[in-house]
Amino acid sequence: MIEELLPDSVVAVEAYGHDEPENATLYPEEAALVALAVPKRRREFTVVRACARLAMVKLGVPPQPVLPGERGAPRWPAGLTGSMTHCDGYCAAALVRAADLASLGIDAEPHGPLPEGVLEGVSLPGERVRLRELAGTHTAVHWDRLLFSAKESVYKAWFPLTGTWLDFTEADIEILVDPARPSSGTLRAELLVPGPLVGGERRGVFEGRWTVQGGLVATSMTVPYA
Q1: Positive/negative CA dihedral, 158, 167, 213, 37
Q2: Which of 3, 51, 161, 170 is the most buried (most CB within 10 A)?
Q3: Whose CA is closest to 83, among 42, 56, 52, 43?
Q4: Interhelix angle for 125-137 vs 143-162, to 10°?
């Protein structure tokens, strides 16, 4: 699912339900981070890292620990950049050589409405107007959840480039629907704060894709060098 949202240069590995990738174990320094966590948290932490290590191998990089850095962002092996996501019943990791892509972000969420009151806290007035318009023509998609997921993907692509926080309301996201496949489409995120410098140029817009499949909504954002 995630792989279809990403450029060919990106390697994505995912796990559904209770399936676990090969060698779904933790390094000691990883295990110490979740030693006191509930079983569900430990399992997702383990499986998403197993996905990441399989992606490393596919890129020709020896598997190694994935430890959280500043604000919990994963620290990747030298020469790689990537993103991870997990929710109930799904884990995924996407990695790419840093020479091929400046940054990327992925997110997956259960395909259901956001809890009451959450949308107002994570969205802009103009975004809510567009969501109502989409809901009037495409009733099968929970657009509020899709917007939330897209905001998460924007942040995951933003943080490695800046090392700073980005608020939900500091990116204005437009959701576009594929006429041939209304359960998927593209995303355009206009940053409302100065964007990161990429290749010597300031980036004010991130672009990505979305899909709804199998009870999940998934989004991606990629930042190319040019």
Answers
A1: positive
A2: 51
A3: 52
A4: 140
Q: How far is CA 121 from CA 51, 78, 84, 125, 141, in A?
A: 32, 36, 24, 10, 20
Distance CA 217, CA 223 (A): 21
pLDDT value at residue 22:
67
Provide the strand spans (E) within 1-78. 11-16, 67-68, 74-75
Contact 108, 89 (CB under 8 A): no
Low-confidence ranges of the chain (pLDDT < 50): none
pLDDT per residue over 146-176, tens digit each?
999 999 999 999 999 999 999 999 999 999 9
Tokens found for residue 178: 């594929």
Q: Which amino acid is at 197?
A: L
Q: Report residue 109 CA to chain centroid gap.
A: 10
- CB-neighbour burial class of residue 30 (10 A; exposed 0-12, middle 13-18, buried 19+): middle
Name the nearest CA neighbour of 211 among 59, 3, 32: 3
Looking at this protein, which amino acid is placed at residue 135?
A
Query: What pTM, to 2 d.p., does this model score?
Result: 0.94
Amino acid at 110: P
| Closest of 195, 183, 194 to residue 221, by C-alpha | 195
- Residues across the chain: 226
Extract the tokens encoding 45. Answer: 């932490």
Measure the CA–CA gap between 159 and 76, rounded to whole angstroms: 13
